[in-house]
Amino acid sequence: MAKLDLSNFAQKRPLSPHLSVYRPMMTMMMSIAHRITGAALYVGMALLGLFLLGAALGSGAFSMVSWLGSGLIGAMLVFLITWAIFHHILGGVRHAFWDRGLYMDPKGREFLALGTLIGGIAMTVILWVARTLVG
Amino acid sequence: MSVPTHFNSGRTGAGKKFVADASGSAHARFMRLSSYVLTPLGILSTWWLVGLVGLPIDRVREEIGHPFPALVLIAFATLGMIHAREGMHEIILDYVHDAELKQKAIKANKIISIAIVAIWVVSLMFIAAPH
Q1: N or C: which end of chain A has fewer CB within 10 A?
Q2: Percentage of chain A surpassing pLDDT 90?
Q3: pTM of the predicted protein model
Q4: Under CATH, what is the fold of the domain B10-128?
Q5: Between chains, do A85 and B120 touch, taking CB under 8 Å as contact?
Q6: Are A104 and A98 in contact (CB under 8 A)?
Q7: Cβ neighbours of residue A11 closer than 8 Å, sequence gap 6 or more
């Protein structure tokens, strides 16, 4: 009987990400998007921190960082950060449902994954419209 | 090629008992619980941050210089960056395959996340301080 050599198991384990071996599915894509939005928010927090630091230090410093929150680039940046926050929040809500064993059937899984995508965009647009109206 | 993840759980060899360091459970629990708090904080913070777009410095200070928005933004930044650091830690463990680079990335993640929180907190305290 062949003896099992466990010492080489570690070296033979596949390394993530294993993206190439799966057919893209909505649940998979939203899971990837959850991670990407999380990482993007990390960068977004750093950029918004610089914006706040400029505002705290005074006019000279603010003029160097004000582009982060004004003009087309600044508005696009904050819009994308808003979308990333809502998409990430709804991704967490999706996981909260799944943690409780809800919507685990094929239709339910797809429904929640699609809801994350559409809901994130919808909440972003609603907040921006409301903020524009309120002023 | 080497295994990237420092693996303290599982069966470490033939005939060895199954061991679990349970760090994964604590991580998952923290991410879940912190997300409950971050959801309202995130929505409120986003509301204020979107309102700052295009404003001059005086209006920016006026908008977030009150105690309530400043405190909410500080709480959001602090808890949010701890949550983000834990998430980034997980990403590093999953995708950085070189052991040495992995350790450096984990250290950098810790330092950068603390720096971001410090910038947010100090800036907001300056902005909200009574003049």
Answers
A1: N
A2: 75
A3: 0.84
A4: 3 helical TM bundles of succinate and fumarate reductases (1.20.1300)
A5: no
A6: yes
A7: B1, B2, B3
